[in-house]
Amino acid sequence: MVSTRRSRGLEQFFGYIRDQSGLTILDLAGATQQNVSFITNLGHRMYSEDFLHIHRETFGLDDTVDQSNAGRIEYFLRQTLDYPEEHFDGVLVWDSLEYLAPALLNATVERLYKISRPQSYLLAFFHSDEKRTAVPFYSFRIEDFNRLTVVEQGQHRPAHLFNNRGLEKLFLRFDSVKFFLTREHLREVLVRR
Fold first, then answer.
1. Domain 2-192 belongs to what architecture?
2. Average pLDDT, the chain
3. Do 119 and 192 touch, CB atoms closer than 8 A?
4. Fewest C-beta atoms under 10 Å: which of 58, 94, 112, 154?
5. Model pLDDT for residues 110-166, shown as the tens digit of each residue
6. Domain residue extents for the chain
7. Is residue 118 a contact partner of residue 192, using CB atoms and an 8 Å limit?
8. Coil, strand or helix at 56
9. Residue 96 region by backbone torsions, left for phi larger than 0, else alpha for psi between -120 and 50, else beta
10. Which run of H or E residues covers position 13?
């Protein structure tokens, strides 16, 4: 299923970087020409990682490998987020964090904190229906400063379904967390480092 919709979180994310140039942005959804073109046409450098693909390669399609194994966590972080400290001015996390078990999730959020510059922003999406056992996972294509094309890629069992308080605790080290609820039962979360 494909839909195009307004995104308040994306609008606020771009509100931060829109009038600047030469920033460094990380996209965890893998490289899509549309996202790369949009970001680079604004005068920014873009890095991309296919975070969920590497997650499936490292931990199995059905999370069959233990996500609390310290060696495997470090291997995964080296494959996905091996960047210098305070390297990025913004990170498009999308919906990738809700599929990580607690130990891996906490290590990933800590690494995102380290590789983000102070006053930078992260945009992450989380499903808000806490009763679901499987949720759609998406690819996201940036159409404009406040509009996304959302393409459903299938269903997956999330490791977590967060409420607002749980997300505030997850991003406790960060300066602020702001929430926007969408009609797809996605909670857009804008986090400032």
1. 3-Layer(aba) Sandwich (3.40)
2. 91
3. yes
4. 154
5. 999 999 999 999 999 998 876 777 888 888 999 999 999 988 888 877 787 888 899
6. 2-192
7. no
8. helix
9. alpha
10. helix 8-17
